[in-house]
Amino acid sequence: FNGHTGEHHIDIRSHRRYKEITTKPDMHIVSPAEYFWPISVTFLAGVPILVLYLLERSRRPTRLEYASFDAKAGVKETIVVDCLHPSCPTLTHHKGGRTPLEVHEDTSGGIVLKALKSSHPIFRGQRYVTCNHYDIDGLVAVFAATQPLVALSHEQTLRTTSVIGDLRELDLSAPHAREALLLCTWSNSVERDLFYRPFDGSESDGCDQKYQYFLPRLPGVLEGLAEGRRAEDVCAEGLAEYTQVVEEYHIMQKEECVQALCPEIGLAILTPPHPLHYYALFSRTIGYDTVLTIYPGNRYELECKYSGYIDITSRPVWPRLDLSPLVKVLNAHEEAVGVKWSCSRFTDSGPVLRLDSVSEKLTKAQRYGNPYERPIFTSNISPSEFTRLVMSYFSHGLRSVEPKNFWKWEEIHRLNRSIKWDLWESTHTLALKSPVADVYNPGVTKWEAVVVLGCNPTSPSLRERVVTAVTAWQHAAASRPTLLVTTGWDSQSRGESEAETMAGIANELGVPLTNILVESQACNTLDNALRVRALLERLPSVPEGLKGAGERRLVGSVTVVTSDWHIPRARLAFDGAFQGSKMPLKYSSAVSSSLSSEVRCKVEKREASGQQWMLDQLQAQPPPTSSQQLRNTWDLA
Question: Which of 56, 77, 228, 69 shows the shortest CA–CA distance to 142?
Fold first, then answer.
């Protein structure tokens, strides 16, 4: 072959020489077929390596560019994080978002990290990431999308940062919690010092400036904390707030700072010594959705946590209730001057029920700031009564509800519309205010009273007693005004007393709410009798100018209703407690048809011992003869 001319020539001499060489016995000429095996092995080994390389390249997270929400929202190739958008793909924990279920987590930052780690296809073809506000969870989400490799190398720290910053749930015993808390306090302090206090300015104007400042600086802070460098050298701006939170966190770990945890209604009741930072205050509320904080001096705040505003995947969540019925009842009883109970709608990101000044409203920054950054006024309602009202309110609203994941706003609105708040409002307004003020009928000096005694709400006897009492009330009300008094405490710790349950049944059977009085403190039959007498004798006198003016005996007679097997003990208690009163007693028994003869025999034996105990009590300490003696002699707490 002539390489210059491209022509082929056959050299006879070379051909002859080739034949001579190949005919020698010690020579071996490799044929083309013998090249196939090593070439094929090399090829087969190289293909998987090439495929693995291409797969690894495809799994590398796409690095997006941050863009202004106003400029890029709605534009193709844009992902929206930590907020909603009608057309762009979203990675957010907000209700109504289109976040893929397989990457859903409690925080938006956690969602973006999970999507990056799994190479979710939502990132394909995307170039920009944006958010319509700045907060810590938004910062983590945007940072993870713009610098995915750095974010994934600090994944646990960033996840914890989002939880502390957004849900305000701090657990210093968790891994990376202290580094995450330093990140949060650094962001808070720099935002406040260089820009403006959170919620104190316009997010549409300051959001982009904050992201442009924090995004390039966050990797250095993360690396410094991971290397164990001193906080003074890495994020000195947030060290003062960090120290404050850690000190207050240890205060909240004391047993006296938690009065009660009520998982059956998702309520945590806290009693800190003074207003604290939210990161410390809510450290004892992990897993709860509503927090009642009782401060010294009859100061209260009731707050719906952020967990009810977003979609939480790690646990079931209780739906938010409209707090306006509770506000209405509290204002009906509040006697402090210049203040009024108020609360924002349950669709707000963090509704806080609190006592506000009538003349000076809180700013948005104060409402969403830490409790120590706003005034908390003193109420005349006692802590025990306030706690009882709050627990009763949530027990009434959530009585037929179970917690679950992914509540929709439509479901929450529908639930709140279905709750009969008028019953709850009426019974609690009457229980705390003057009973006759709402039911007084001019020209009438005496009322009838039908008293129904409570029992275990799960027992058929409770409804049997109410049905009998309603019949007695209807008979008496045909001739003169009549009150129906329900009495009995929360014996089963359900958050709703026996008296409140019976009031609801009586209202369903036709007794107007204005004619029902609720006494929900009595814990036994003698206590029923004493408290009912005290309640009826505290009724105000008839106003001047009306028949019977000045007379305090507005109740003419009292009919006591209870189960037939309970009548002997009830008679002992009420006859003894009402000695010296001018209210004659009558008794009406509800037939307990649901009791078998065997059970009835056991009940009657128990009642016999109860009657003996009652006699011993009455002999040891005779009942008072006046309402003043009743208050002074008997412990009604």
Answer: 69
Taking alpha carbons only, the member of 424, 489, 496, 498 closest to residue 461 is 498
- Name residue 364's amino acid: K
In 3D space, the residue among 118, 119, 121, 139 whose CA is nearest the CA of residue 129 turns out to be 139
Lowest mean pLDDT among 29-38, 247-256, 414-423: 29-38
Q: How far is CA 585 from the centre of its chain?
A: 47
The mean pLDDT of 422-432, rounded to a whole number, is 66
- Contact predicate 445/477, CB 8 Å: no
Of 149 and 46, the one with more pLDDT: 149
The answer on pLDDT for 436 being more than 50 is no
pLDDT higher than threshold 50 for residue 635: no
DSSP for 199-237, written as a single string: TSS-HHHHHHHHHHHHHHHHHHHHHHHHTT--HHHH-GG
- The DSSP result for 419-454, as a single string, is S-HHHHHHHHHHHHS-GGGTT--TT---EEEEEEE-
Task: Compute the distance between CA of residue 370 and CA of residue 306 in angstroms, rounded to an integer.
Answer: 14
Using DSSP's 3-state secondary structure scheme, residue 71 falls into helix
User: What's CA 33's distance to the chain center, in Å?
Assistant: 77
CA nearest neighbour of 115 among 129, 106, 105: 105
519 Cβ neighbours under 8 A, 6+ residues apart: 431, 485, 486, 487, 488, 499, 528, 531, 532, 535
Residue whose tokens read 């907000």: 94
Structure tokens at 313: 């995947």
pLDDT of 240 over the 60 cut: yes
- Give the other-Cβ count within 10 Å of 206's Cβ: 16
Cβ atoms of 84 and 108 closer than 8 Å: no
In this predicted structure, the answer to whether residue 479 has a pLDDT above a threshold of 70 is yes
DSSP line for 401-419? ---BS---HHHHHHHHHHS
Token pair 């907060």: residue: 135
Q: What is the model's pLDDT at position 534?
A: 86
